[in-house]
Structure formats: C-alpha cells, structure tokens
Amino acid sequence: MKDEGLAALVSSAKSEDVATQKGLAEDLDQILRSVKGRLGADAAAVWLLEKDGPRVARQLGVGTDSFCPDSGTDARHIRQCLEICAPVAVDLVKEKQAGRRCPCSDFGIVSALYAPLTTRGRALGVLGIYFRMRKQFTPVEKELLWVFSGLAAIAIENDSLYHETNRQLADLQSLARASAALNSPQEKGALLRLIAEQGAALLDVPASCVVLLDAVGHPKVQAAFGLCRDERLSELVASSGVSAMVLAEKRVMAAWDLGQSPVLEHRELAAREGLVSAASAPLIYKGKAIGSLNVYARSARGFESRELHLLHTFANQAATAIENVSLFEDLVRAAAERRVDRLLYERSEWRLSALVAMHEITHELSNTLDLDKVLDITCDHVARIGHADIVAIRLFDPAGKMSRLVKQRGLSDQYVEATRRLEIGGAVAQLIATCRPVVIEDLGSHEHAGDFTTFVSHGYKSLALFPLTSRDRVIGSINVGHMHIYRFPAEDVEELLHLAHHAGPVIHNAYLYEQEKAAQESKDLLRSVVAHELRSPLTAISGYAQLIGRRLPQGDETPEKAVATILAQVQRLSNLADDLLDSSRLALGRFRVHKALVDLAALTRRVADSIQL
Prior knowledge:
Layout: H1 2-16, H2 24-39, E1 43-50, E2 53-60, H3 73-84, E3 88-91, H4 92-97, E4 111-119, E5 122-131, H5 139-182, H6 188-203, E6 207-213, E7 219-225, H7 231-239, H8 242-249, E8 253-255, H9 264-273, E9 277-285, E10 288-297, H10 305-337, H11 342-366, H12 371-386, E11 390-396, E12 402-409, H13 413-418, E13 421-423, H14 427-434, E14 438-440, H15 453-457, E15 462-470, E16 473-482, H16 490-551, H17 557-588, H18 600-611
Antiparallel strand pairs: 1-2, 1-5, 3-4, 4-5, 6-7, 6-10, 8-9, 9-10, 11-12, 11-16, 12-13, 14-15, 15-16
Helix pairs in contact: 1-5, 2-5, 5-6, 5-10, 5-16, 6-10, 7-9, 10-11, 11-16, 12-16, 16-17
C-alpha cells in the first residue's frame, strides 16, 4: 500500500507541477507552494549555487512572516546534500545544542529537509522544506521531496536553455541584418560609415570606429560613429597600441577600463571621448589583416565571449565588403582613365561584371535563412559560373571525420545513395588542412585518384573542390565536376572560391537556424503529446469514480465526499492538461481566450475541500 500511495503522489506531483512557460520565478513559486502544501511544511526555499556559495533564489514562508534563511548551518548541510546526492534531514535543536550557528532558528524553524537539484549529472542547488516542530522524516516524504526537486531542476535547466536559445537566435538575426546592410551597393566612404554604425548596433554600444592600414602599414581611423572625427582621434587610436596588437595577433581583444590603463593614450582617449570599456576585432581578408573594427562603451562593461565572437564574425564579413568595394572602385577608375592596354581592360571588365554578379549573389543569399533555399541558390550559381555537369555541396561533421551530401545537381540516384555519407581523407583532408581549392583536371592521372573510384565509375573525369568556411573553420565543400577532362580557367576558380567564401557563413547560419527551429517545434510537439497522454488515464479514473459513487450506500457522507474529491482533482488535472495544450497553441499562434463568470466563494470552498484531511 505504501508503494502504491507513493506512486500516486509522485504521479500527481509530476502532472501538477510541470513548468508552465510563464517564467522561472512563477514555475519555482508553483513548485514551492505544491511541496509546502503536500508535505505540510511551514516554509520552503530553492537554493542555487553561485561562485561565492549557495544563495536563496525563491522562498515561501508562513503567512506574512519574512522567511530569509542564512548561509551558516544551511551551507554545511547543503554541501553535504550535494556531496551524497540524496536528501538530508536536519534537527536544528541538536545543531544548536552542539554549539553550531542556526540562523533558521530565528524564524522558529526546528526541523529541515534538503533534496539536491541535479540535471544531466550537474548540481544546481537544493530544495529545502522547514518545520516549526521537531519531525522525523519518513522515506515517503524524502522520496516525494526528491521528486519535487527534480521538477525544480528541470524548470531551472529549461529556463537556462530557453534564454540561451533566444540569445543565439537574436545574435544570428542581428548578424543577418548587419550582413544584408553591407551588401547594399554603395561607395567606400559610405560603406565604412555603415560598418561603424552596424558594429555599434550589433553590440549595443554608443560609439565605434573603423581603422584601416594605409599604404605604408600605419593604422588610421577611416570612419567613426559616436566619436569626434578628427586627426587627433586617429593619433590616439593608432598610438594606444590596441589596434597594433589586434592586427599583429589577429584576434579579438577587450579592455575593461581605459581610464585605468597604464597606457597614456588610453587614458587620454577615455577622458576626451567619455569612454570606459572597449573591444576590437581584426578585419581579415584572405588571411591578411587590413585593419580593425573598434567598439566603445561609456560605462564599465565586460564583453561576453559570444559578443566578441559576434563582433569577430561581422568584422570578417566587413573586411570582404571593404575589399570588394575597393577592388570595384579601382577597376572603375582604371577603366575610366584608360591607362591599361586592351588585355588588361578586358580583364577589368570581366572582373567588374564578376563583382557585380557576386554582389547580387551575396545579396540574394543574405535575404533568407531557409537552408534549402540557400543551398539551391548556391548550386544554381556554381553550375552557371563553373559550366558544370554536376554540383554537390557536402557538410563536414565537427570532428572532421565524415562528410554528408546535403544538395546536388546532376548526380545519378545510384551515386547519391552510395555517397550520401563518406569518410574524410585524401584530397578532402588536404582541402581542410590548407583551406584552398583542390583542382583535379584529370582524375585518371591524379595522385588522389583512388579517393574518387566511385566518382570515376559513374563517368566523371574532372573535379574541383572549394572550401566552405565559417568562423575560421572549414565546415564543408562545394564540388564541381565534368563528364570530360576540363581545364578550369583561373578566372572561374577565383570566382567560385569567392562564391564559396560568401556562401559558407550563410549556409552555416541557415543550418543553425534550422536546428533552432526544429528544437522549438519538438518542444511544442512534446507539450501536445504529454497533454493528450494525460487525458486517457484521467478519463478512466473519472469513470470508475462515478461508478463507485453510484454503488455507495445512501447516507454515508465520508465515502461520498471522497468520491467528490477524486472527481474534483481529476477535473483539476484535466484543466492542467488543457493549460499544457494552451501553451502549445500559444506558441503556434492559435490560442483563444474564452471569458466566463467565476463564483469565487464556490471556488474557494472546492479548494478547501480538496486539501482537507
């Protein structure tokens, strides 16, 4: 009977106290109210581990009393509870008699019970209940508290994952908007001002500047946002040493307080512009640093690693845009001044059209986060530029061991099935190691011919591999093939490499976006399935309760009241299932509100009857 009663309590607790998507505070308050009511505790609290020790995150006292546990005896028992990963009971009378500090006694607390909050093998804190009378805790009470601690741990972990997912999605959307702005046609000065403005907006800071190396390699401010733009600004930024270090080491750097820096120019820059904190990312194009993007805050700010990574990614895209515009203007100027011979003029004209076409391709890719559409656009343009018989896009796993075919043009069904997943080696390993194209004009005579036996057996003669890079890592390849021995023109190789360079971050962002969207859909589906699964046992319980009620002898009030309580609790659980379905409908935008009058007095009586012993 004890096991059956415990199973019923645990099942009820799990059904009643599932996180509601209303926020972590409300979820924890709901769990504290439930555990306090079910175990008859005078107070309950959730403790979370922080760097300086355990801290009360949420608490629920008795009546209007202010319950605020301290960290004396509590901290010792919390550590013990986490070390043994099991409930720990505390008799504060004995603790006080032993001369140990008992801050809970100031609130009349005599007994306490703690259960660990753990998820995925990681300790988050503890759930504690407190009594104003001496109490011997039974195994059933310890087990039930552990169930509630598991619910609280899930609520805390889900809240953390929810906010982290939202942050990542917001970062991807911000980066997509900033990248789209860079791809709008404009002259170099306007582009540099836009980069400074978008860099500040990306990290939500009031000031920024773009520093470029001049012809002799000296850094100079070319555009500023929220700063006094004059020659003195260039001198301060250039002599402060930050840009020089960023350019030399090709990595992002941040400064907490420029005013406390030992570098004189740092302090002068901070005093003149009212700046406190700074972050700087190198502008790198084809492995070469051409400048830096600096952002500034007017209050002390520690830039998070994700913010620095976001700034670095945007800086790399900005460097490509700067070089494209510079090359575009150089070609236009050379053509206008007619200072090149006919061959060079034709080359410039081709380069100009290629840049315009690449600009349109980049703009088209940046306007969507749909992975399938991005891959289709990339395949179409690769086939056109490379005059290819086949095009395949493969993505590599993070470990760099396997590649997966995600999109193709012109491949036979048999070849697709045979090569959907391949082990990485040979020419592909060379591609990853060098981050440079691998061009094989004649597969039959190439040193890596053995790597492409299946490819050759289907009649393909030539192949070129182009790296897809994102965040300084090769994430995949674009494979271009021909049914005959093909001499790849240098112009086509350069243009395809340029396309792969632009497509890599877009494909990676779209892939991450698809993963996040799939995760959200899975959560919505899980809520809906759980709600529907709850209804079947509730219907059976309700039916049997009504059958028992009809067979009870007339005039016996106690069994009748028990049956009525069961039916009321079944209805309550049914309402909770409806709430779970409502949360799913709310996420899908299908939620509707049905207004109705409620008799508060009758509702209060029903609640009192349901918890009366």
